[in-house]
Specification:
The protein has 256 residues and is mainly alpha-helical. The chain is built from nine helices and no strands.
């Protein structure tokens, strides 16, 4: 009687390859992510922007941008919930694994399709609208490629494992591995048990986060909180003569 075939993985055992992929690489990416943002904020504050192209074209942007941003927000919240919150906590709250699995697959698939659709519209817009294409840098193209690969692999892993296949509970392997990194006790053997699509998705996400500080994606870590406390801007006329026409309401002369 032969033993059952093992699923193909990038690192079947927690050897040198597994340690490099699932122990060394995450810490390198984490260091680049943190230090890269500090460097970017100190030496490139004027470049810390989305470089919006709304002035060039609005019709496609009005469709693709909300679709992408709302989709990626749901995907991000789902990843935080699935990777950070242990399975024992949700079970203690009365949420069975089946209920969690069904809701995660349904919401994740819908959000993934919305994200891919929005991203496709934004890429189509950048390629077909002349002024937008001219304002697109090589850095932007590399960022879009990295985003597309990461999102597509995540959606493919979800569909292949949970819809086409018999289901896969990543909270028993990938989630503990993710949390073990922040405990400073990384366990590469956990990732060695994950299907190859999940491993590829994890690696593409790590590379994306390493590239993140050097792209326009930095705008996701900022918020215009200063606008809430900034002083009012008072406009004063430099002309000593009032003029013959009465000023509009709210624009009355305040003095010299």
């Amino acid at each position: 009687m032969t033993a059952p075939a093992q699923p193909f993985t990038l690192a079947a055992e927690a050897g040198t390859g597994g340690i490099m992929l699932w122990v060394v690489l995450p810490y390198v990416v984490l260091a680049v992510f943190v230090l890269g943002h500090i460097w970017r904020y100190r030496y490139d504050k004027f470049g810390w922007t989305t470089r919006s192209s709304q002035l060039y074209e609005r019709r496609l942007l009005r469709i693709g941008s909300p679709l992408f941003h709302f989709g990626i927000l749901v995907v991000l919240l789902g990843h935080i919930g699935g990777l950070v919150i242990p399975q024992s906590w949700t079970e203690a709250a009365g949420i069975s694994e089946h209920a969690y699995h069904v809701s995660a697959v349904v919401l994740g698939t819908i959000a993934g399709v919305a994200t891919v659709g929005g991203l496709a519209i934004l890429i189509y817009r950048r390629r077909t609208v002349g002024p937008v294409f001219s304002a697109t840098t090589r850095n932007d193209k590399a960022m879009y490629a990295s985003l597309t690969v990461t999102i597509a692999l995540g959606l493919a892993a979800t569909v292949a494992a949970n819809i086409v296949g018999g289901g896969y509970n990543y909270r028993e392997t990938i989630s503990p591995w993710f949390r073990s990194i922040f405990y400073f006790q990384p366990d590469p053997a956990l990732m060695s048990e994950a299907p190859v699509l999940f491993q590829l998705h994890a690696l593409s996400a790590l590379l994306l986060f390493a590239f993140w500080p050097f792209t326009r994606l930095v705008h996701m870590l900022t918020a215009p909180l200063g606008y809430l406390t900034r002083p009012y801007i008072v406009y004063r006329s430099r002309d000593t003569r009032l003029g013959a026409r009465a000023p509009h309401r709210g624009w009355e002369r305040t003095g010299s």
